[in-house]
Amino acid sequence: MDCTDPDTTADGDPQPHTIRLELADQPGQLLDALEPISANGGNLLSIFHERGNITPRGRIPVEVDVEATPDRFDAIVTALRDEGVNVVQAGAEHYAEEVVVLLVGHLVDTDLSDTLRRIEDCPAASIDDFSLNAPAGRSDTSSARLRMATRAGEATTALSIVHEIADEKELQVVEPLAGGAV
Predict the structure, then answer these.
(1) What is the value of pTM for the model shown?
(2) More confident residue, 112 or 58
(3) pLDDT tens by residue, 146-156
(4) Could you tell me what percent of the chain has a pLDDT over 90?
(5) Which neighbouring-strand residues pair with 43?
(6) 48: how many CB neighbours lie within 10 A of its CB?
(7) pLDDT of residue 8
(8) Phi/psi of residue 53, each to 5°?
């Protein structure tokens, strides 16, 4: 399955970008992360700050949507990193549809983090939410619910990627689930 990013606005027009950050749970961290965006000409579209959710590194996940030209966006990401902000992902994303699937099988033994990373590597989809149920621990069958945002018209591509990875790892896919139908 081809998972390359098609050409987007090569002429330098402003376009939406999503930046995923991990911030320390300390006063002022969010404001400090927004300063390089403003200083480098980014137009803030939205902020999703998950203070009640902690990453494996003990940080707060924050998703910032900005509008900027490609060169300004590169400057924003560089400035964030120069300021010591942990940039987890940065890129132009145009998500318009939601798909919810259930993966069933030996998810932990087949490297769940690899599965999630490979789905995220595809520009057609981004994992918005994930939950794992492993009642017997790592040695038995488990299930994971994935809520993915997909680019407009690319839900089928995103589902193909999920099926390709699931087939390789001998996992079952139940899709689409109610509330996330294509």
Answers:
(1) 0.50
(2) 112
(3) 988 787 678 88
(4) 37
(5) 67
(6) 12
(7) 43
(8) -115, 130
Query: What is the SS3 assignment for 101?
Result: strand
**Could you give the CA distance from residue 170 to residue 106 in angstroms, rounded to a whole number?**
8
CB 11 within 8 A of CB 22: no
Model pLDDT for residues 115-131, shown as the tens digit of each residue: 988 988 887 787 877 88
**Which H helix or E strand runs over 64?**
strand 60-68
Mean pLDDT for 153-165 is: 89
Residues 165, 99: Cα–Cα separation, whole Å:
16
Length of the chain equals 182
Taking the C-alpha atoms of residue 33 and residue 13, their distance in angstroms, rounded to an integer, is 24
For residues 100 and 181, what is the distance between their CA atoms, to the nearest angstrom? 7
What one-character DSSP code corresponds to residue 123?
T
Rounding to the nearest 10 degrees, give the CA dihedral for residues 29, 24, 37, 151: -140
